Amino acid sequence: MAKSAIILKSASEIEQMYEANQIVAATLQMLEERIVPGVTTWQLDQWAEKLCRKRQALPAFKGYRGFPGSLCVSVNEQVVHGIPSKKVKLVDGDVVSIDFGVKYNGFYGDSAITIPVGTIGEDFQALLTATQESLYHAIAAIKKGNRVGDISTAVQQHVEQQGFSVVRQFVGHGIGKNLHEPPEIPNYGQGKNSPKLHVGMVLAVEPMINLGGPEVVVLQDGWTVVTKDKKVSAHFEHSIALTEEGPWVLSKRENERLPGSL
Ligand code: MG
Ligand code: MG
User: Fold this and answer.
1) Which ligand lies nearest to the CA atom of residue 174 in the structure?
2) What is the whole-number distance in angstroms between the Cα of residue 90 and the centre of ligand 2?
3) For residue 255, is it within any domain?
4) Residue 81 alpha carbon to ligand 1 centre in Å
5) Would you write out the chain's pLDDT as a tens digit for each of its 262 residues?
């Protein structure tokens, strides 16, 4: 990513980004309610695109660098960028990460959740819980005077103390009129010289956390990222604006309970 300047957003631009992100949030919540054993990842993609277009938004990932789907759907050991497929049927005990983005009125929204299919193992549930909590800790670190590195540290500390590991090769990002803008937001490290946080920044923070080791590889399809040790991975993402009042989770889902501190 070019080291160009971080683009700050005005209050009215942040309102517009809220609208875009709420379409993403509604789509993820709809999918969460429909995920049961037997559903294919292709069906999820169809449902998402339908709701997105009904809300007059464009699916942001479709055609992005040639990506074929509207959704990234990554099952079990797949970390991110899984391609929706009629051949991939979800079964009881799977975990499925869904990453969705839209463009609406010129602005992008971007969010992801990892959802259990039926009944999942305790270790899988612990990974999902830790990853979502790490995102909330990261959001709490989005405040004036902090640096991007404080977000990174918040994620890494929370998951590593529970024995999970942080994917290094993929990072969060600024978001606005572009899907990916500076700054890069790693989920590890201290970033002592990383950019300071200012009111008007909108950041897509997205911890990708593995049950086993941190190493990942890209499959032959050129997209799907999987863990090298084939152990399960989780991914949660929110787009957050830093306002005078503190962090505003633009992609908060209706059914999502943020911790009291946020
Ligand atoms: Mg995303
Ligand atoms: Mg993103």
Assistant:
1) 2
2) 24
3) no
4) 9
5) 445 799 999 999 999 999 999 999 999 999 999 999 999 999 999 999 999 999 999 999 999 999 999 999 999 999 999 999 999 999 999 999 999 999 999 999 999 999 999 999 999 999 999 999 999 999 999 999 999 999 999 999 999 999 999 999 999 999 999 999 999 999 999 999 999 999 999 999 999 999 999 999 999 999 999 999 999 999 999 999 999 999 999 999 999 999 988 8
Q: Find the 227 Cα to ligand 1 centroid distance in Å.
A: 18
Q: Rounded to the nearest whole angstrom, what is the distance from the C-alpha of residue 99 to the centroid of ligand 1?
A: 5
CATH of the domain at 134: 3.90.230.10
CA of 245 from ligand 2 middle (Å) equals: 24
CA of residue 111 to ligand 1 center, whole Å = 5
Cα of 113 from ligand 1 centre, angstroms: 9
CA 177/CA 108 separation, integer angstroms = 6
C-alpha 34 to ligand 2 mean position (Å): 23
Tell me, yes or no, whether 262 lies in a domain.
no
Q: How many helices (H) and strands (E) does the chain have?
A: 4, 15
Who contacts 71 (Cβ-Cβ below 8 Å, separation ≥6)? 31, 41, 44, 45, 48, 49, 59, 61, 84, 98, 99, 100
pLDDT in the model for residue 1: 47
CA of 185 to the centre of ligand 2 (A): 10
Q: Measured in angstroms, how far is the CA atom of residue 192 from the centroid of ligand 2? A: 23
Dist CA 136 CA 154 (whole Å):
9
Distance of CA 95 to the CA centre of its chain: 15
Domain count, the chain: 1
Phi then psi dihedrals of residue 257, to 5 deg: -100, 110
In a domain, 3, yes or no: no
